[in-house]
Amino acid sequence: MQVANLWRFVSLRPSWRLSFSVAATAMDGDLDSCSLVLCGKSCVENDTAKRLKSENVLKLPDDTTKVSLFLDSEINNLVRDDDSFSPSLFMNSLSTARFGRFLIWSPRLSSTHDVVSYNFSELPVGSVCVSDIQFKGRGRTKNVWESPKGCLMYSFTVEMEDGRIVPLIQYVVSLAVTEAVKDVCDNKGLPYIDVKIKWPNDLYLNGLKVGGILCTSTYRSRIFHVSVGVGLNVDNNQPTTCLNAVLKDISPASVLLKREEIIAAFFHKFEKFFDLFIDQGFKSLEELYYRTWLHSGQRVIVEDKIEDQVVQNVVTIQGLTSSGYLLAIGDDYQMYELHPDGNSFDFFKGLVRRKI
Questions:
Q1: For position 79, what pLDDT does the model report?
Q2: Mean pLDDT of 52-76
Q3: Positive or negative torsion for Cα 243, 248, 250, 251
Q4: How far are the Cα atoms of 212, 233, 298 from residue 294, in angstroms, in the given order?
Q5: 307 CB-near residues (< 8 Å, 6+ apart)
């Protein structure tokens, strides 16, 4: 069986460094253990939870970490904070046919992405892992970061057959996040919060980063196993801002957004967008995507190498190419595909252009 890493676009950076809460650490007893709560939307997923617990098959890449599995009915056996993620509220808010229906929740975990990617073959497609605190979040190359409470951190599984469109899944995810926030605000009668997309996978609010997307993939038995990670700062205004801080500035008397409602709305949106994406391609979502991202008409500096010298030029972004990179036009009216140089955290520094 051939397994190959296909691609990785990483956006969340190692800048969210805050200490863990004592209560969350105590839930797992020590740094070398973690608790995973298994929960399903229906009896089908709950039967899967019972089987996984009885077989004790869920593991972490770090063999030294002891994993303890609990069913949702046993959640009272864990010491939980008042602001811990509520699996029951999430499930009651969820209305999907596939995605999010099997949940793994942990009060404190190294990485939600490691859980779903390492156990991909054991989990139903569409399974999601959520953690209140994440202390080895996955980032670009080998970077890791610590994410505190108040952040919505989750990873879920997707299967795809066409490798040509796999890199575009991050754009579908980004769009589903922004539309989910809008839906929750509308349903609760709250002021509009305008979360924007910064290419390729950052989420911005009022000019400040509030989240990002991570997608990784392996190829097995003619299927791409895609693990999707999302981080969204809902209720912690450090180090930049968060959704609820902006909401309170707009309307101090407003009720606050809840992580469980946002992730449930996300899967509702993502399931619809994903079906469109698979059936009709990304073109079916492009118009909405371009209304949501920050870059239409943006002028950026790109680099060309001429006789061993780097020359900078300015181009104007027009949209996306079919491969998911930036489409731009130069002052010479030549069309270009823009690629990140691979060395900078900021994808817009030193973009490299290729003629189309």
A1: 59
A2: 89
A3: positive
A4: 14, 19, 8
A5: none
* Angle formed at CA 219 by CA 289 and CA 96, multiple of 5 degrees: 50
Residue closest to 232 by CA, chosen among 7, 12, 19, 10:
12
Instruction: Report yes or no on whether pTM surpasses 0.70.
Output: yes
The CA distance from 332 to 304, in Å, is: 14
Task: Name residues whose C-beta falls within 8 Å of residue 225's C-beta, 6 or more positions apart in sequence.
Answer: 117, 120, 121, 157, 159, 217, 218, 219
Which H or E run includes 217? Answer: strand 208-220
Contact 186, 273 (CB under 8 A): no
**Looking at this protein, which amino acid is placed at residue 129?**
C
Q: Distance (Å, rounded) from C-alpha 183 to C-alpha 172?
A: 16
* CA 223 remoteness from chain centre: 21
Peptide bond connecting 200 to the previous residue in cis, omega within 30 degrees of 0: yes
